[in-house]
Design brief:
Radius of gyration: 23 Å
Distance between the termini: 23 Å
CATH superfamily of the largest domain: Ribonuclease Z/Hydroxyacylglutathione hydrolase-like
CATH class of the largest domain: Alpha Beta
Strand order of the largest sheet: 5-4-3-2-1-7-22
Structural class: alpha/beta
Oligomer: single chain
Helix content: 25-40%
Length: 476
C-alpha cells in the first residue's frame, strides 16, 4: 500500500523512514487524517528516501502534531520537496474545502517542517543520538558500549528511482561473547528500474542482516527497455497519422523529464515530424529546474545532452503552459499534438480536462508510463483489457460525467521507475551475498505483488520473508 512510514527504535533513539500520504484507494483520506500511531514529538530523526508524495506527503502533518527533530534527505530531494509541498497543499486545500473539512495541515506547517530538513550526499555517514508504537525495534544488547560513543549510524545509497532517491542503511553494534558485531538494516525506498534514461544505476549492497523492500512490481516483469521507445513512437505515429491528441498522464518528477528526453531523441533523428508538445504542468517546469541544477546526479549521457542543448526542455516544439488560460488554449491547437500533464495516475490535475475531451476520440490516444495504483482513474482506464488494440473500461467518470473510452489506450511498463520482480529478487540476492541476511520485510505493494515477491525470495534465498500489516511491531 502507499503511505510509506516506518518507525525504528534503538537504544533510546526513535527514527522514522519516510512519512508518506496514503493514496489511490477508498479509505486513503480517512487514514491520512488519523493520528499517527506514535507520538511525533518523541521522534528524533526522519530519513526520507525520495520526494514522491507517498513518501513525504504527511511530513507537514508530522510537524503539526509535534515533531521537531532533524530530517535528512539527499541534496536534490530537499529542492524537489520545496517545490512539491506548495503545489500539493493547494490541491489538498481545494479538495478539503469541497468536502467540507479542514486541510490536513497548513502552509505554516510546510515552512516549519522544511526548516528541519538537511540535505546530505550519498555515502555520508551520520551518527545518531537521542535528541530529547514501533514498527521495528532493535533489541538493545549493548549496555556496556555507552562509553564508546554513538552506537547507531545511517548512510544513504543511490536507489536509482528518481533524482535524489535513496536506500537508507542503519548500522549498529551488538555484543556477543564479549565481541562486537556490526548489524545492518536497509530500507530500499523505491528501487529504480535500472538502467534509467536519466540516472546512474541503483547501488547494490552485500552485507544486510535485515532488509525492508518495496514490492510495487513484485509480481511483474517489465518489457524490454528498447521496446518502450518503440511503443511510444508507434503511438506518436498513430496520432500524427490520425491528427489526434496524445495524452500522457505523468508525474512531475522523473517521468516527465524521461518522456521529454525520449521525444527529443525522436525528433532529433528526423524520423518523425515535429508536432506541438504541451507541457501542461507548472510543477514539472519547476522540477526540471532542479534537474538542471543537480545535473551531477544524472548519468553521463544526459549530462552530455544538457551540455549540448542547454536543458531538457530546449527543443523548439515544446510549449510550457503555466496559467489556466494557457492550458485551455491547448484546445485551440488542432491535432496532431502531444499533451503531458499531471497527475500520473489521473487522480487530479490538468490531465482530467484533457481526458474528458479526448478519451472519446478514436483518433486520439492515451499512454500510461507509470504504475497505476488500484482504485485510481488511470487504473480504471487500463483495466478490463479485451485483447484488442483499444483496451480499458468502456467509460469512466470524470467530473461527474461519464466519458466513453474510444481512444487508443497503452500502458508502457518499461517506463516505470520501479524495479520489477527479477530486479527486486536480484537486489535481495546481492544483499545476501555474505549469507547473513536473516529476514526480509516486504512493503508498499498490493497483496498479489507482495506475495509473489515473497515466494520468489523465499525460494531463491532461503530466508524468512514477512509481509507486515499496518502498525505491526517486530523485534530484531
Amino acid at each position: 500500500m502507499t503511505g510509506a512510514n516506518y518507525l525504528l527504535e534503538h537504544d533510546g533513539v526513535k527514527i522514522l523512514v519516510d512519512c508518506g500520504l496514503f493514496q489511490g484507494f477508498k479509505y486513503a483520506e480517512i487514514l491520512n487524517y488519523e493520528k499517527f500511531s506514535y507520538d511525533p514529538a518523541e521522534v528524533d530523526y526522519v530519513f526520507i528516501t525520495h520526494s514522491h508524495t507517498d513518501h513525504i506527503g504527511r511530513l507537514p502533518k508530522l510537524y503539526k502534531e509535534g515533531f521537531r527533530g532533524k530530517i535528512y534527505v539527499v541534496e536534490p530531494t530537499k529542492e524537489l520537496m520545496l517545490r512539491a509541498f506548495p503545489d500539493n497543499w493547494s490541491h489538498m486545500a481545494e479538495e478539503a474545502k469541497s468536502d467540507g473539512h479542514d486541510p490536513l495541515y497548513m502552509q505554516d506547517d510546510i515552512e516549519g517542517v522544511m526548516g528541519l530538513v538537511e540535505g546530505i550526499s550519498y555515502h555520508q555517514k551520520i551518527e545518531l543520538n537521542p535528541q530529547g508504537s514501533t514498527f521495528l525495534k532493535i533489541q538493545d544488547r549493548t549496555s556496556n558500549l555507552a562509553s564508546q560513543g554513538p552506537n547507531l549510524s545511517a548512510t544513504f545509497f543511490n536507489s536509482g528511482h528518481i533524482l535524489g532517491s535513496a536506500i537508507v542503511c542503519f548500522e549498529w553494534k551488538e555484543s556477543r561473547s564479549n565481541l562486537l558485531e556490526t548489524k545492518k538494516i536497509y530500507f530500499t525506498g523505491d528501487l529504480g528500474n535500472s538502467p534509467s534514461l536519466l540516472l546512474p544505476d541503483k547501488e547494490f549492497v552485500h552485507d544486510a542482516d535485515y532488509a525492508v523492500i518495496e514490492s510495487a512490481y513484485g509480481s511483474r516483469q517489465h518489457k524490454d527497455r528498447a521496446e518502450r521507445a518503440v511503443v511510444l513512437k508507434e503511438v506518436v505515429e498513430y496520432v500524427v497519422k490520425n491528427k489526434g491528441a496524445l495524452m500522457i498522464p505523468s508525474f512531475a518528477i522523473e517521468r516527465t523529464q524521461e518522456i521529454l528526453f525520449e521525444l527529443h531523441q525522436f525528433f532529433a533523428d528526423e524520423t518523425m515530424p515535429m508536432v506541438p508538445v504541451f507541457l501542461d504542468s507548472p510543477l514539472a517546469n519547476k522540477m526540471t529546474e532542479v534537474y538542471n541544477r543537480f545535473s551531477s546526479y544524472l548519468n553521463s549521457e544526459v549530462r552530455s545532452h544538457l551540455g549540448e542543448k542547454g536543458g531538457l526542455f530546449n527543443f523548439s516544439c515544446v510549449r510550457q503552459t503555466n496559467t489556466i488560460e494557457e492550458s485551455k488554449s491547448i484546445n485551440d491547437t488542432p491535432g496532431p499534438k502531444i499533451i503531458i500533464a499531471g497527475s500520473g495516475m489521473s487522480n487530479g490535475g490538468r490531465i482530467l480536462h484533457h481526458e474528458r475531451r479526448y478519451l472519446s476520440d478514436p483518433n486520439s490516444a492515451i499512454v500510461f508510463v507509470g504504475y497505476q495504483v488500484e482504485g485510481s482513474l488511470g487504473r480504471k482506464i487500463l483495466d478490463g483489457s479485451t485483447g484488442s488494440p483499444r483496451v480499458g473500461q468502456p467509460e469512466v467518470n470524470i467530473f461527474g460525467e461519464f466519458v466513453p473510452v474510444k481512444c487508443l489506450v497503452k500502458g508502457i511498463g518499461a517506463y516505470s521507475a520501479h524495479a520489477d520482480q527479477p530486479a527486486l529478487v536480484e537486489w535481495v540476492s546481492q544483499a545476501n551475498k555474505e549469507n547473513k541476511l536473516k529476514k526480509v520485510f516486504i512493503v508498499q505493494g498490493e497483496e498479489e505483488s507482495a506475495k509473489a515477491l515473497a515466494g520468489q525470495i523465499e525460494s531463491k534465498e532461503k530466508v524468512e520473508v514477512v509481509i507486515p500489516s499496518q502498525n505491526q511491531t517486530f523485534e530484531l
